[in-house]
């Protein structure tokens, strides 16, 4: 049988890729080494977080599945950074690791034109520079119009626990070989990266009385914008612990046993998720590091100690762990470990995630040098969308930096490349006020509907929500309020009294005043708070942000429009940058390697200065 799209790997990237392409009408085959581990949470059992939560909401807004599956498997929800402005608010959910994978498989199995095959892909079949199929370990050759590689940490994966080394893509799971060797022979640049995970701990051996309880938000929230109903899982608490000097000393004594420090591991690890031994050495002046103890599921006694990732020998991990207050009698189920794996320089892919060298071959996830479930899932849905569009001879789907964090992520990978595992942060986005977690549906659901990934019901709900928002904004803009009607409320909120009547908007512009504060006494906005469902909460939040932060939002919109003008200045593919001597040496090399499509892309390449952009503008006759 020939497929429209073949997806290799069923992690977070592969699952979103397969779902997107299949829901858009492609005949899809999802190939995985183990069908019991679809979308497995290999590391911490959580989705979202700083900037990552925005990505999950964007995936949901586009019609992806990560948001709804996170909600179904959630055992704790928290909105991070609520003390800051809405550009920084980031949803995060603790999940039941086992149920997360089960729910993913259930959702994938509902998609009629999606097939599954359990096997190992050892080769991409390429003819005349085009990927046309795959060859598996069982000897099967399967044809496909587009191939998406989402291999995670499995390509030549090597696991380290102290001086013990073993082949594997995850603990107790085999690695895959052949693909990176094939790609390297073709001419693609292959590198090595490292990540790690902590030991899993038996909760029965932990003294929780010595830890600080961290409960979820009392207000029920969720990632998905859909009106789906599901049974909420039992909510669980997390806990905060801290290392101490005794822990650090235990690690320092045996630091040479760590493969990171004895030269065994040469590859690059994640800067923003370092191992505990990295923390001890890098931050010598700190005598304590915060740790988060997270439950692995709704009922299980298994816990994950976030912040205590390690590749030290087993006995050293246990000895150090037992010097943490509350963990004096800790037992573990399996040790922490480091894993090295192959990735490809992402400057070798297009913004569609199709490789530049091989037509119809797409890369998504950790294969592009990223880290994190959310970043992988984002690339997955975009590769699935674009594979479907290309096989149907349609225009590619690319998100700009002012449209989505997903756009920032892919643009960074393609234009800047990576020198360490890439992790998304709010600071990477120039337009944070535009890319908030609350408005991902406004930004992207229409786009998802247009390409056939979002259902009409979801699209209409989004339209209705923002029509109502605009109606309420108009009411608030036109309604006048007299001092006697509102001064008591203002005094209660320690806000200055009115001396004369003002528009309702002027009162809501005050940071200390919220819609709920006024609704009980001002008839004009009572209806806004009559219902306390998810929809009305979203609506109120959207209205308040539009009023209080309207100036910042409009300023960023204007900045984005100015930058878009540079995108209209196209750069020919055949320009020989090495011959433009007015460019700096680094700019000539980087531009020749990346081959940007326009001046805006060129300006975002690391090493290309404003002076180099001026040279290019002159070269283009501008």
Description:
By secondary structure, the chain is of the alpha+beta class. The protein has 4 domains: 2-196 and 340-450, FAD/NAD(P)-binding domain; 200-216 and 230-336, Elongation Factor Tu (Ef-tu), domain 3; 456-555, Orthogonal Bundle (Arc Repressor Mutant, subunit A), CATH 1.10.10; 568-619, GidA associated domain, C-terminal subdomain (DNA polymerase, domain 1, Orthogonal Bundle). 35% of the residues lie in helices and 18% in strands. It is built from 20 helices and 22 strands. The protein is globular.
Question: What does this entry show, briefly?
Answer:
35% of the residues lie in helices and 18% in strands. With 622 residues, the chain is α+β, with helices and mostly antiparallel strands.
Topology (elements, then pairings):
Blueprint: E1 2-8, H1 12-23, E2 28-32, E3 46-48, H2 52-62, H3 66-73, E4 74-80, E5 90-95, H4 97-109, E6 114-118, E7 121-127, E8 130-136, E9 141-149, E10 158-161, E11 164-167, H5 179-186, E12 190-197, E13 200-202, E14 212-214, E15 238-242, H6 245-253, H7 276-282, E16 290-295, E17 302-306, H8 314-321, E18 332-334, E19 337-344, E20 361-363, H9 373-391, H10 405-416, H11 440-450, H12 456-478, E21 480-481, H13 483-492, E22 502-503, H14 504-508, H15 515-519, H16 534-548, H17 550-567, H18 585-594, H19 599-603, H20 610-619
Helix pairs in contact: 1-9, 2-9, 2-11, 3-4, 6-8, 11-12, 12-16
């Amino acid at each position: 049988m020939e497929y429209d799209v073949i997806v290799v790997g069923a992690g977070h990237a592969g699952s979103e890729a397969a779902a997107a392409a299949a829901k858009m009408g492609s005949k899809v085959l999802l190939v995985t080494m183990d069908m019991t581990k679809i979308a497995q949470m290999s590391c911490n059992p959580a989705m979202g977080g700083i900037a990552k939560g925005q990505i999950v909401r964007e995936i949901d807004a586009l019609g992806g599945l990560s948001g709804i599956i996170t909600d179904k498997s959630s055992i704790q929800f928290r909105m991070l950074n609520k003390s800051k402005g809405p550009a920084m608010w980031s949803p995060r959910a603790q999940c039941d690791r086992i149920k997360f994978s089960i729910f993913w498989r259930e959702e994938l199995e509902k998609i009629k034109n999606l097939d599954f095959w359990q096997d190992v892909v050892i080769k991409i079949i390429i003819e005349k520079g085009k990927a046309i199929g795959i060859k598996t370990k069982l000897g099967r050759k399967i044809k496909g119009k587009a191939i998406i590689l989402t291999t995670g940490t499995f390509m030549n994966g090597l696991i380290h626990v102290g001086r013990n080394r073993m082949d594997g893509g995850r603990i107790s799971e085999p690695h895959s070989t052949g693909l990176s060797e094939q790609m390297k022979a073709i001419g693609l640049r292959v590198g090595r990266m490292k990540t790690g995970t902590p030991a899993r701990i038996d909760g029965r051996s932990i003294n929780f009385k010595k830890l600080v309880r961290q409960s979820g938000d009392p207000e029920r929230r969720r990632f998905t914008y859909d009106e789906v109903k599901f049974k909420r899982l039992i909510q669980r608490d997390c806990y905060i612990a801290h290392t101490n000097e005794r822990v650090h000393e235990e690690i320092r004594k045996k630091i040479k046993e760590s493969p990171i420090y004895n030269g065994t591991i040469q590859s690059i690890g994640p800067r923003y998720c370092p191992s505990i031994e990295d923390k001890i050495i890098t931050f010598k002046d700190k005598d304590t590091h915060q740790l988060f103890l997270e439950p692995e599921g709704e009922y299980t006694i298994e816990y994950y100690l976030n912040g205590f990732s390690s590749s030290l020998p087993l006995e050293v991990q246990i000895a150090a762990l037992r010097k943490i207050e509350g963990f004096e009698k800790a037992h573990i189920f399996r040790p922490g470990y480091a894993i090295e794996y192959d990735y490809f320089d992402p400057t070798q892919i297009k913004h569609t995630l199709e490789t530049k060298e091989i037509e119809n071959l797409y890369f998504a996830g950790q294969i592009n040098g990223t880290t994190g479930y959310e970043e992988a899932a984002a690339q997955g849905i975009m590769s699935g969308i674009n594979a479907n569009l290309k096989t149907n001879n349609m225009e590619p789907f690319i998100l700009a930096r002012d449209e989505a964090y997903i756009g920032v992520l892919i643009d960074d990978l393609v234009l800047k490349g990576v020198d360490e595992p890439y992790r998304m942060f709010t600071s990477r986005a120039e337009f944070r006020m535009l890319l908030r977690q609350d408005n991902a549906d406004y930004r992207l659901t229409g786009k998802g509907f247009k390409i056939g990934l979002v259902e009409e019901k979801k699209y209409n709900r989004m339209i209705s929500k923002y029509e109502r928002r605009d109606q309420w904004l108009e009411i608030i803009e036109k309604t006048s309020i007299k001092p006697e009607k509102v001064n008591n409320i203002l005094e209660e909120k320690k806000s200055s009294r009115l001396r004369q009547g003002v528009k309702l908007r002027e009162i809501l512009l005050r940071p200390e005043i919220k819609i709920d504060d006024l609704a009980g006494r001002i008839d004009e906005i009572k209806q806004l708070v009559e219902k306390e469902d998810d929809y009305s909460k979203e609506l109120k939040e959207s209205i308040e942000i539009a009023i209080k932060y309207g100036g910042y939002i409009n300023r960023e919109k204007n900045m984005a429009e100015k930058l878009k003008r540079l995108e209209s200045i196209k750069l020919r593919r055949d320009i020989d940058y090495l011959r433009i001597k007015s460019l700096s040496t680094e700019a000539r090399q980087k531009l020749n390697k990346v081959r940007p499509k326009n001046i805006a892309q060129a300006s975002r390449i690391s090493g290309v200065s404003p002076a180099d952009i001026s040279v290019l503008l002159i070269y283009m006759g501008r």
